[in-house]
């Protein structure tokens, strides 16, 4: 997911699979800026399965959306787990620059 994708855009896209209970944007633990993932919670399992089945692979903000099931909350997962504060997989990307977000203001 793009670092610039808004919660409103996510509601618009994911509501196509069903009624959304809550969206939680993943934040970098150091800068508190979006780090490219979110959690979307639905009221029904059927809607969740539809999101995985039909929304995964959709392009949003020029980035493919990957939709997976989250198998449960564990303390500490509310922030990124990588050394830089974001996602671990971003640290292996050659085009990832965590400082690029410092120039943007997030509401």
Automatic annotation (TrEMBL):
<dbReference type="GO" id="GO:0000398">
    <property type="term" value="P:mRNA splicing, via spliceosome"/>
</dbReference>
<comment type="similarity">
    <text>Belongs to the RRM NCBP2 family.</text>
</comment>
<keyword id="KW-0694">RNA-binding</keyword>
<dbReference type="GO" id="GO:0005634">
    <property type="term" value="C:nucleus"/>
</dbReference>
<dbReference type="GO" id="GO:0045292">
    <property type="term" value="P:mRNA cis splicing, via spliceosome"/>
</dbReference>
<dbReference type="InterPro" id="IPR035979">
    <property type="entry name" value="RBD_domain_sf"/>
</dbReference>
<keyword id="KW-0507">mRNA processing</keyword>
<protein>
    <recommendedName>
        <fullName>Nuclear cap-binding protein subunit 2</fullName>
    </recommendedName>
</protein>
<dbReference type="InterPro" id="IPR034148">
    <property type="entry name" value="NCBP2_RRM"/>
</dbReference>
<feature type="domain" description="RRM">
    <location>
        <begin position="1"/>
        <end position="72"/>
    </location>
</feature>
<dbReference type="InterPro" id="IPR027157">
    <property type="entry name" value="NCBP2"/>
</dbReference>
<keyword id="KW-0539">Nucleus</keyword>
<dbReference type="GO" id="GO:0000339">
    <property type="term" value="F:RNA cap binding"/>
</dbReference>
<dbReference type="GO" id="GO:0005846">
    <property type="term" value="C:nuclear cap binding complex"/>
</dbReference>
<dbReference type="InterPro" id="IPR000504">
    <property type="entry name" value="RRM_dom"/>
</dbReference>
<dbReference type="Pfam" id="PF00076">
    <property type="entry name" value="RRM_1"/>
</dbReference>
<keyword id="KW-0508">mRNA splicing</keyword>
<dbReference type="InterPro" id="IPR012677">
    <property type="entry name" value="Nucleotide-bd_a/b_plait_sf"/>
</dbReference>
